[in-house]
Design a protein that fits this description.
heterodimer, A: alpha/beta, Rossmann fold, 2 domains, 6-stranded mixed sheet, 6 strands, elongated, B: alpha/beta, Nucleotidyltransferase, domain 5, 7-stranded mixed sheet, 13 helices, 23 strands, disordered C terminus
């Protein structure tokens, strides 16, 4: 459900609520809610939280607190329950998170960066959620395709995967991937043939490592969506990932989205980290950064 | 990167006194290990504070450079400090000393001799802000609601900075200070600053040099001075006599001040007993002690509370030494060979979301800033200015490319002689932008791009040498010497 639709629905609900409120509440408090709502209906976005407290004692202090976190604080209440706006916002964000998990990456964005697609043994999303191990193993067809189309033993292998959020790829790939390729170039690192993995888990890079034998794998993957954003991406990096690689050997930059780690800057910094991995011949907790 | 300490010095050449401090600042990682690295100053320790020296003067209008250098050398020796230990810091020349005829030369030569990245600063606004940071006013404003005024009263000027929630919301300076009237123990006036003569006249107080003044007259002057100052901040009285004491511009609007902190030499004198006789008043050869106590008394009749300063006479030097250095973002694009860079003027380029989406709009805006730079610094300038990017919150890769295209082309066109392009961004994007610029420029010019620093139009900045190859210390300042 889009933001506009939520707001239309909200306007209707609020108009009804307002009628009742004005009968029940003192004029001043009703006015405060009215003002907050007028601002909200016009231009509020998901990332622009405004406190609903009618008469805060320290208005500036509250505004600072609210601005300091994406968590839902200062949302006020009606009786013992959340306000309608809060409730709808919550359900809207939850729906976006579910959509991100069950969605598909937009094929045009994969074409734009000339990424061909291979699959893991996940079969379908239900199975992907129940069997994380399946998302770590490429299908036989995928292995054959990689062998046929990818450069073997590249210095750096860039891989993109939907993971738990297809919309993370839609939202961030166009900013992260070119910045990442620039940064590899700036550090004079060579990279292999990038591709897209459908239904991938982080450790799918181990199987890819076995097949293509790269020195470093950079995996851009959709993160488990939350209620703050459904579009968050991680960059997992590992020196020589192979069968049996442990999680502490992986380095990650997480929370990449427009309200978190800036996508272009994350991309630009990956080259620096990869360079260090190649120099130190290690990654994860052993990497000195 | 393991934890890192940097040593920072502060030197304050004031109207009546000169002092020095040595401190160390700890850089700590403030971002999680799953995020981009971000280091900030997380701890500040005062290691050494020099005694208060009288500022050595040759004549009334000239500072004794050799004597100042000697003081600093002695203090460095006492602090057990070698020049090579010092990574940052600031020399500030304050109050009436800044108007002496060799002030500019002294402060620059001192800065260069005090350490590799010790910067020269001056200016009443900066002095007021540094004093407010050193006195604890800034820190307190983060904890309490309302506006806190820090008034640093020294020998020649009272520099006020207003803080609210950790931000400076205004500065204003008055000709109010202990050494504006100098006298001996009989009350014979030996010096009367020309800066307060018109104010005295309007107040109907006729005094002149070589004249003898009574205790009561002097007390009246001090009390009226306190009323002019506090009257201004309370905003309640019709008395506009403060205008004659203003140095520079008044605030556009005086906000409601909730708390007042008096730092500086006069702040320290408030602590002692009230001077009852001319002899007690004139212990330093001026009317400072009386001014201090009249300020203290007058404070009671105004609606704000007076809060004791954490640091009084050393507030400015502590601010200069411990609070003037900032740390850039930790993902930046720097070239160690080109650092440090001193006294780089800054022009602000404010871009909105729409500008970043249209090559035409961006071309016009960048063209305008390059033209302004060429007018101010000449098109043959080698290091003309730094470009400070502000005004937008998010930059896509497409916008970044557009921005890099226009910046690189515009700069090369306007400043063909320059071999270095410096960009300062408020947003965390310096590494990406620096890489994009560098791909376009291919070394002609070279590129330095740093971020997470907020600068204003007309500020000057000093960029220090890289720390752990990842970030640089930065000092932002306004130089009074430049007009």
């Amino acid at each position: 459900m889009s933001d506009i639709q939520v707001n239309l629905l909200l306007e209707k609900v609020m108009a009804e609520l307002q009628k009742r409120l004005q009968r029940e509440m003192p004029v001043e408090a009703a006015g405060a809610i009215n003002n907050a709502e007028n601002g909200a209906a016009n231009d509020r976005t998901l990332f622009d939280p405004v406190s609903m407290l009618p008469n805060p004692r320290d208005k500036e202090g509250l505004a600072e607190l609210v601005a300091s976190t994406p968590a839902r604080i200062g949302v006020w209440r009606t009786g013992t329950r959340p306000l309608t706006k809060t409730m709808l916002q919550f359900r809207c964000d939850h729906a976006a998170a579910v959509d991100a998990v069950y969605g598909e990456v937009n094929p045009t964005i994969l074409d734009q960066f000339h990424l061909f697609t291979v699959e893991t043994s996940f079969e379908d999303t239900e199975n992907y959620l129940k069997r994380p191990d399946r998302g770590r193993i490429l299908t036989d067809a995928a292995v054959a395709k990689l062998k046929a189309r990818c450069m073997e033993k590249p210095q750096v292998q860039v891989v993109v995967s939907d993971g738990l959020s297809a919309s993370a790829i839609d939202a961030n790939l166009a900013d992260v991937l070119p910045a990442l390729l620039d940064s590899l170039k700036a550090h004079k690192l060579s990279s292999g043939t990038p591709f897209f993995v459908r239904g991938g888990r982080v450790a799918a890079m181990d199987h890819i490592g076995e097949v293509l034998k790269p020195e470093v794998v950079v995996l851009l993957i959709g993160e488990r969506p939350g209620l703050v954003t459904a579009d968050s991406m991680s960059a997992y990096m590992c020196y020589k990932p192979r069968k049996g690689t442990v999680e502490s050997d992986r380095t990650v930059i997480s929370n990449i989205h427009r309200g978190g780690t800036p996508p272009v800057e994350a991309g630009a910094h990956i080259g620096t980290i990869v360079k260090k991995m190649l120099e130190q011949k290690t990654s994860g907790v052993n990497l000195v950064v | 990167m393991a934890e890192t300490w940097i040593t920072s010095v502060g030197i304050d050449l004031g109207t009546s006194t000169t002092k020095l401090i040595v401190s160390r600042l700890r850089l700590g990682r403030t971002s999680s290990s799953f995020s981009l690295p971000r280091y900030q100053i997380v701890e500040r320790q005062l290691l050494y504070a020099s005694p208060i020296h009288a500022t050595p003067l040759l004549q009334c209008d000239e500072i004794d450079a050799a004597a100042v250098s000697r003081i600093i050398q002695q203090e460095y020796a006492k602090a057990n400090l070698r020049l090579s230990d010092i990574q940052s810091g600031a020399v500030i020349i304050t109050g009436e000393t800044a108007t002496k005829k060799n002030a500019e030369q002294i402060v620059h030569s001192l800065a260069e001799r005090a350490g590799d990245f010790v910067v020269a600063t001056a200016g009443a606004d900066l002095e007021a802000v540094l004093a407010g940071k050193g006195s604890g006013a800034e820190a307190r404003s983060k904890q309490v609601k309302g506006v806190i005024a820090n008034v640093d009263v020294g020998g020649g000027t009272a520099n006020a900075a207003l803080f609210q929630r950790g931000n400076v919301i205004g500065t204003v300076t008055f000709h109010i200070g202990g050494r504006l009237i100098r006298l001996n123990r009989f009350g014979d006036i030996q010096y009367l600053s020309p800066q307060i003569r018109s104010w005295l006249k309007e107040k109907g107080m006729q005094i002149a040099e070589a004249q003898r003044i009574t205790y009561a007259q002097l007390q009246h002057i001090a009390s009226e001075m306190a009323r002019s100052l506090f009257g201004y901040f309370s905003g309640i009285e019709g008395d506009s006599s403060y205008r004659l004491l203003l140095a520079g511009a008044a605030l556009d609007k005086v906000p409601t001040v909730d708390e007042i902190i008096v730092s500086g030499g006069i702040g320290r004198l408030m602590e002692g007993p009230y001077p009852e006789t001319m002899e007690e008043v004139s212990v330093y050869g001026d009317f400072g002690p009386l001014l201090a106590h009249e300020l203290k008394e007058a404070c009671r009749s105004y609606p704000f509370h007076r809060i004791p300063a954490e640091q009084t006479v050393r507030a400015t030097v502590i601010g200069a030494g411990m609070q003037s250095t900032e740390i850039s973002g930790s993902t930046v694009f720097i070239d160690a060979k080109r650092l440090p860079i001193r006294n780089l003027p800054v022009l602000k380029l404010e871009l909105h979301r729409e500008d970043l989406q249209s090559a035409d709009r961006l071309h016009k805006k960048i063209g305008a800033i390059m033209d302004l730079g060429a007018r101010l610094f000449g098109s043959k300038a080698v290091h003309p200015f730094g470009i400070a990017l502000t005004g937008f919150d998010y930059c896509s890769y497409a916008s970044l490319q557009l921005l890099a295209d226009e910046l690189a082309a515009g700069y090369k066109r306007s400043f063909p002689a320059s071999d270095l392009l410096v960009v300062i961004s408020e947003n965390d994007m310096a590494k990406a932008l620096g890489q994009s610029l560098s791909i376009r420029c291919q070394g002609e010019p070279e590129v330095i791009c740093i971020d997470q620093i907020r600068v204003e139009h007309g500020d000057y900045m000093d960029l220090g040498e890289p720390i752990s190859d990842a970030m640089i210390p930065v000092v932002i300042k306004t130089l009074a010497f430049h007009d």
